[in-house]
Design brief:
Elements lengths: L1 H20 L9 H15 L4 H18 L2 H17 L3 H18 L2 H17 L3 H17 L3 H17 L3 H14 L5 H17 L3 H13 L4 H21 L3 H18 L2 H17 L3 H13 L8 H15 L9 H36 L5 H19 L3 H19 L3 H21 L7 H19 L9
C-alpha cells in the first residue's frame, strides 16, 4: 500500500511538472475527452492538493479556451481561484474571480456573478479592506436573491455581519445575522451554528455576556453532523471562556478554556489552538503567573509557521508586549527572550512585505497583458488591486507594527540599565519614528496612538530613574 501511494504521488508530481512545462499528456485524446479527463483530475485533487489542482485546472482552462467550452472554462476558473485562495495567493485568486465574474456576466449567470463577488469580498476582508469587502458582499447578496439561491443569501449575510463585527458595529451585525437566520435552509446545520456563534460575538461586544453565552450554547445544540461537532464545540467553549474572563470569573474561564484546548489539540489546527492558548496565557497573567503565561504562549507559537502572516500570532505577541510593559513587574521576561519575540514579529512583517511585493508584481504584469480597457469592471480591478497592495501590508500589519514598536521600546528599556547614553540615542530615533507613523496613518488606524502613549509613559519613567529632561529626547 505504501509503495502504491508513492507511485501515485510521483505520477502526480510528474504530470504536474509536465503540465507546468507546457506539454500535453492528453494530446492523443479528442478535445471532449481531454476536458472530461482534466475535469475528473481537478475534482480528485480539489481538496487534497492545491498545487496539482492548479496545474490540471490551468490546462483545462487552456483546452476550454481553444474549444470555446464555457462550462469547462467557468469550472476551471472556480477551481483556480479557490486553490490560490486556499494557498493565500490573494493576488492570483482575485484575478481569476474577476475573470469568473466577467464570463458569468457574458453568459447571463447571475448566480455565478454572485459567487465571484462573494469571494472577492472575502479577499478584501482578508486584507482588512472592510468597506470594499462589504461593497462586493452586498452585490453578492443581491444577485443571490435575484437567482433565488437563499442558502447562499444566508451565507452572504453572515459574511456581511462578520465585517460589521470587525468594524466594531455589533448592532448592525446582529440585525444582519438575524436576517441570515431567517433565510437559512433547514439542512444547513453547520452554517446555522456559525450564525449563532457570530450572534454571541456581537452580544459579547455589546457587553451582554449572558446573552452571548446563550448564543454560543445554541451554536452547539443545532448541530446534527458528527464531523461538525468537535470543531464548533471547541470554538463555543473558547468563546464562552472569554465571556467569563471578561466578567472576572476566572475559574469558569479556566474550565472552558481547558475544554476548548483539549479538543483543538486533537483537531490539529495550530492557529486555532494558539487562540485558546493565548486566552489561557491571559488568564495566567490575571493571576500574576508570568511564567505560566509564557509557557502557554511559547507552546502555541512553537507549532506555527512563523514565515506565514497570522493574526493569532500577532495577538499572542501583543500579550507578551503587555506583560513586558506592565509596571507591576521588573524585567518579567529576560532580555534575550524579548529579542527572540521581537524577531518573530519582524518575520511576520517580512512575510507581509513579500506578499506586498508579490501583489505589485502580479498587478503590473496583468496590466501589461490586459492593456487599457474602458470596461467598468476592468477599471475597478485596477483601482482595487492598488488598494490591496497598500492595505494588505499596512492594515494587516497594523497590529504587527504596534507590537514591533512596543518591543523596540522595551528593548531600549533593558539597554538603559547598562548604558544610559546609548538608550538616549535609541529613544530619540523611536520618538521620531512613532511621531512620523502617527502623522501618516489615517483615522481608521489610530490604535497606533496606543504605542505612542506607552512610549511616553516609558520616557516618564526614564526621566524619573535617570534624571533626564525633555532635551535628552529631542530630535
Amino acid at each position: 500500500m505504501k509503495n502504491l501511494c508513492l507511485v501515485i504521488f510521483f505520477f502526480g508530481l510528474g504530470v504536474c511538472n509536465s503540465l507546468n512545462a507546457g506539454s500535453n499528456p492528453w494530446k492523443h485524446l479528442s478535445s471532449d475527452r481531454q476536458i472530461d479527463s482534466l475535469t475528473a483530475y481537478v475534482q480528485k485533487f480539489s481538496e487534497k492538493n492545491h498545487d496539482l489542482t492548479i496545474a490540471y485546472a490551468q490546462w483545462l482552462r487552456k483546452v476550454a479556451h481553444e474549444t470555446k467550452n464555457d462550462e469547462a472554462m467557468v469550472f476551471a476558473l472556480i477551481e483556480l481561484a479557490w486553490a490560490h485562495k486556499k494557498k493565500d495567493n490573494l493576488d492570483q485568486s482575485i484575478l481569476y474571480y474577476f475573470d469568473l465574474e466577467r464570463i458569468n456576466k457574458q453568459l447571463g449567470d447571475i448566480g455565478g456573478q454572485a459567487t465571484a463577488y462573494f469571494n472577492i469580498g472575502q479577499i478584501f476582508a482578508k486584507v482588512y479592506e472592510y468597506d470594499k469587502a462589504l461593497n462586493y458582499l452586498e452585490r453578492a447578496k443581491d444577485f443571490y436573491e435575484e437567482a433565488k439561491q437563499y442558502g447562499k443569501v444566508s451565507k452572504a449575510l453572515y459574511e456581511i455581519a462578520t465585517r460589521y463585527i470587525e468594524k466594531k458595529q455589533p448592532d448592525i451585525a446582529t440585525k444582519r445575522l438575524k436576517q441570515a437566520l431567517e433565510v437559512c435552509q433547514d439542512e444547513m446545520d453547520a452554517h446555522r451554528s456559525m450564525i449563532y456563534n457570530r450572534l454571541g460575538w456581537a452580544a459579547k461586544d455589546q457587553h451582554n455576556y449572558v446573552l452571548a453565552r446563550d448564543y454560543y450554547y445554541k451554536s452547539i445544540t443545532v448541530l446534527n453532523q458528527p464531523e461538525d461537532y468537535d470543531k464548533k464545540r471547541a470554538i463555543a467553549f473558547n468563546n464562552i471562556g472569554e465571556t467569563h474572563l471578561l466578567e472576572g470569573r476566572r475559574d469558569s474561564a479556566a474550565y472552558y478554556f481547558d475544554k476548548a484546548i483539549k479538543i483543538k489539540n486533537n483537531l490539529g489546527n495550530h492557529e486555532s489552538s494558539l487562540e485558546t492558548l493565548t486566552q489561557l496565557a491571559r488568564l495566567a497573567y490575571e493571576y500574576d503567573q508570568i511564567e505560566m503565561a509564557r509557557k502557554y504562549l511559547d507552546q502555541g507559537i512553537a507549532n506555527m509557521n512563523l514565515a506565514k502572516p497570522s493574526q493569532k500570532l500577532v495577538e499572542a505577541l501583543e500579550l507578551i508586549t503587555m506583560i513586558v510593559n506592565d509596571p507591576k513587574y521588573e524585567s518579567p521576561i529576560p532580555y534575550k527572550d524579548v529579542t527572540y519575540y521581537m524577531n518573530l514579529q519582524q518575520q511576520q512583517l517580512s512575510a507581509l512585505q513579500d506578499l506586498k511585493d508579490q501583489l505589485n508584481k502580479t498587478t503590473g504584469r496583468y496590466h501589461v497583458q490586459a492593456g487599457i480597457s474602458q470596461d467598468k469592471f476592468e477599471q475597478e480591478r485596477r483601482t482595487l488591486y492598488a488598494s490591496i497592495n497598500k492595505q494588505n501590508y499596512w492594515k494587516y500589519g497594523l497590529s504587527g507594527a504596534s507590537v514591533v514598536l512596543s518591543f523596540l521600546v522595551v528593548f531600549g528599556f533593558f539597554r538603559v540599565r547598562r548604558e544610559k547614553r546609548e538608550k538616549q540615542t535609541v529613544l530619540q530615533d523611536k520618538d521620531a519614528f512613532v511621531t512620523e507613523q502617527v502623522k501618516n496613518y489615517d483615522q481608521r488606524i489610530l490604535q497606533m496612538l496606543i504605542v505612542k502613549a506607552e512610549y511616553e509613559e516609558m520616557k516618564t519613567r526614564l526621566k524619573k530613574d535617570f534624571g533626564l529632561d525633555d532635551e535628552d529626547f529631542s530630535t
